[in-house]
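Hi support team,

I've been running sequence recovery on a batch of backbones for a student project. Most finish fine, but this one hangs at about 90% for roughly twenty minutes before it completes. I'm not sure whether the input is malformed or the queue is just slow. I've pasted the structure tokens below so you can try to reproduce it. Let me know if you need the job ID as well.

Thanks,
M.K.
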């Protein structure tokens, strides 16, 4: 099926009609650009029998807006990186500059001094500024079932990263990171697969963002036992997927 462009007039109705006509039981959004679209349609899709494992429109929009994500974490008492649209509101000597909306590392600059960060921000349509964080970069692959329960959360260290995706990554044991990830996942009306990113320094955890979808390196999480796609299929068939926190395999590398 040649799907219409999301922004095309009538695209929502055409997607609903296609899923009903073809009796689509499960629809898994995988691209950042389509998350808000399918979050807005998830209730109508569900009413006609198509399960779409994605969060509510509000929860997805919080994840897509890095400033709102920071503000949500602050209100919820979840440790997160200082974030502002004004460089003068951020302390430090070296800074990260990125686009406020969406995911991925395109147009990301790391390690700039204050003047360089200010100049780089002028090139972006909606820049935000953060300090450079110390520690190692980690991700957590999670799956939230239809009842809002986290089935499992598999943390992994991002050993090598290219274009925002981990090309070498390994599952690890990190209790504090899992605890913070669980707090975030249950503080918003999220469903289905998530990838939460953080910097870790010892037992200290600082969240960076949450991608409400499968990630480019989530195949490691699948291999480690966090098979979110299989769980989504089971839920679409009406089965109950029970929480099994901590069941993932440690020490697997991709």
């Amino acid at each position: 099926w040649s799907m219409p462009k999301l922004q095309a007039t009538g695209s929502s109705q055409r997607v609903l009609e296609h899923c009903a006509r073809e009796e689509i039981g499960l629809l898994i959004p995988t691209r950042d650009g389509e998350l808000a679209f399918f979050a807005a349609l998830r209730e109508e899709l569900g009413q006609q029998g198509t399960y779409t494992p994605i969060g509510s429109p509000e929860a997805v929009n919080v994840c897509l807006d890095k400033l709102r994500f920071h503000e949500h974490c602050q209100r919820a008492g979840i440790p997160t990186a200082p974030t502002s649209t004004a460089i003068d509101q951020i302390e430090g000597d070296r800074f990260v500059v990125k686009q406020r909306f969406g995911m991925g590392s395109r147009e990301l600059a790391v390690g700039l001094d204050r003047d360089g960060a200010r100049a780089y921000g002028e090139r972006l349509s909606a820049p935000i500024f953060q300090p450079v964080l110390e520690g190692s970069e980690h991700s957590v692959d999670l799956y939230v079932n239809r009842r809002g329960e986290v089935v499992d959360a598999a943390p992994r260290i991002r050993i090598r990263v290219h274009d925002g995706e981990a090309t070498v990554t390994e599952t690890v044991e990190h209790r504090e990171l899992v605890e913070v990830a669980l707090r975030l996942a249950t503080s918003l009306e999220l469903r289905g697969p998530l990838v939460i990113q953080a910097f870790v320094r010892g037992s200290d955890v600082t969240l960076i963002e949450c991608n409400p979808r499968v990630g480019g390196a989530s195949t490691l999480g699948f291999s480690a036992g966090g098979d979110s796609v299989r769980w989504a299929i089971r839920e679409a068939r009406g089965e109950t997927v029970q929480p099994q926190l901590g069941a993932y395999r440690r020490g697997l590398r991709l």
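--
Follow-up from support: It reproduced on our side and the slowdown came from queue contention, not your input. The first helix runs from residue 11 to 21. No action needed from you.
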